[in-house]
Design brief:
The protein starts with 7 loop residues before the first helix and ends with a helix. Helix content is 44%, strand content 17%. α6 packs parallel to α13 (377-402). By secondary structure, the chain is α/β, with parallel strands linked by helices. Bound molecules: glutamic acid (GLU). Glutamic acid is lined by residues 71-73, 95, 145, 147, 175, 330, 355, 358-359, 362.
Length: 428
């Protein structure tokens, strides 16, 4: 991660404190919302393929469930820490509230690098994670989902383990399941598409036409790939994407000034979104240093990798041409960088609004699972567009009315909804 001393939980708390002041929240409500309700830390012992044993560290943090069962993904990441999971759980609370779905905020993680694990070892980690936590999660308590380096297959192994433990079929235990196994059509596309639904609305409000714009993306995982697909469909041109290179243990940016070709890059990328650079070079891409994505003369920047990527050090490299930053990742911008972006008047679509499409579609998956009746893809994506657009318009209207930065406006909406739910329940 870019800055070793950076603590995402401290950042999430600082963002909350600022909004608590704007909303004039009482002390008990602040104390309740500044910290998670519950958190679980556990060991996951695994027998590796070579016969040796290895113990992985797992977490689940339940930040707040006043508006409904906890909801949030599970990340597999070598640098996962309890503080990243705490921050991400808190952001999930605000994310579900900003799109007004009846769910709370949770997050999980395992300290591991799936690049270096066989499928069998990954399956054991998934099953081990569920075994450690299965009494404290479930359809009416806390519902996991995919996130960084986890996918539909991981979710199905977790579901299978949960169902074995609880002796029944509980499709509502987890979302992001494979289509045909309780998953929703459109779930894979949902986060990336959701980012572009908000970008489309922002462009409309700024009087810009998508087909006259360019963008640069950080990350080439699930979020970026589908965001690029929809942005291209709207007529936009992506000129640069950056991604992690497993072989060199570093990131590169790949640039084609007349526009990157999504399908071409997908053909030469691995399932974690790493692009093979020699093949990219043969296809005419310029191979640039990791941070080149942020320096491009484009209209839109979309950081869609992990937290702590736009920092006080690199924020000054953002081109004067940039009008919009849409945060596909959770927590990509540090508070110092955010302040500078605000001062420069770049239009910010904050993470828990921009990337809320994933959890919104997870909610649709729960609804479909409960009815045991599954919608067509167009219906799912149409409903997603309606929800994301409504959430975006509510935030931008409040930002204009109260002259707030978009991040603060989104926070005001979310935190007041959650604080109200806690009050109504008689918690504070
Ligand atoms: N992991 C995604 C997120 O950060 C989706 C969570 C979910 O579907 O529960 O929003």
């Amino acid at each position: 991660m870019a800055d070793k001393s950076f603590n995402p939980f401290a950042m999430a708390q600082a963002q909350f404190d600022k909004v608590a002041d704007i909303l004039n929240l009482d002390t008990a409500t602040r104390d309740l919302l500044r910290y998670p309700m519950r958190e679980y830390h556990f060991n996951i012992p695994i027998r590796m393929d070579d016969g040796s044993f290895k113990v992985f560290r797992g977490f689940r943090v339940q930040h707040n469930d006043s508006r409904g069962p906890g909801k949030g993904g599970i990340r597999f990441h070598p640098q996962e820490t309890i503080d990243t999971v705490r921050a991400l759980a808190m952001w999930m609370t605000w994310k579900c509230a900003v799109v007004d779905i009846p769910l709370g905020g949770s997050k999980g993680g395992v300290v591991c690098d799936p690049h270096n694990l066989s499928m069998r070892e990954q399956e054991q980690i998934c099953r081990g994670w569920v075994r450690q936590i299965s009494r404290d999660v479930g359809p009416v308590k806390d519902v996991p989902a995919p996130d960084v380096m986890t996918n539909a297959q991981h979710m199905l192994w977790m579901l299978d383990e949960f169902e074995a433990q609880h002796n029944g079929k509980f499709p509502g235990f987890i979302t992001g399941k494979p289509v045909g196994m309780g998953g929703s059509l459109g779930r894979t596309e949902a986060t990336g598409y959701g980012v572009i639904f908000t970008v489309r609305e922002a462009l409309r409000e700024l009087g810009m036409h998508p087909e006259e714009t360019t963008a640069s993306f950080q990350g080439f995982g699930n979020v970026s790939q589908y965001a690029i697909q929809l942005y291209n469909q709207l007529g936009g041109t992506v000129i640069c994407v950056s991604c992690w290179d497993q072989e060199d243990q570093t990131s590169y940016s790949f640039r084609k000034k007349d526009g990157v070709n999504l399908e071409e890059l997908q053909k030469i990328s691995d399932k974690f979104g790493g692009i093979q650079k020699n093949k990219a070079r043969d296809l005419g891409y310029e191979i640039l240093p990791a941070e080149a994505w942020i320096e491009q003369d484009v209209d839109i920047l979309v950081p869609s990798a992990i937290e702590n990527q736009v920092t006080a050090e690199n924020v000054t490299k953002i081109s004067k041409q940039v009008k919009i930053i849409a945060e596909g990742a959770n927590g990509p911008t540090t508070p110092e960088a955010d302040k500078i972006i605000h001062e420069r008047g770049i239009f910010m679509i904050p993470d828990f609004l921009a990337n809320a499409g994933g959890v919104t579609c997870s909610y649709f998956e729960q609804v479909q699972s409960n009815m045991n009746y599954f919608w067509e893809k167009d219906e799912v994506l149409g409903k997603l567009d309606v929800k994301m657009t409504a959430a975006y318009l509510a935030v931008s209207a409040l930002a204009r009315k109260r002259e707030l930065y978009m991040r603060d406006a989104a926070y005001v909406i979310s935190v007041s909804r959650v604080a109200q739910a806690c009050k109504d329940r008689g918690w504070v």
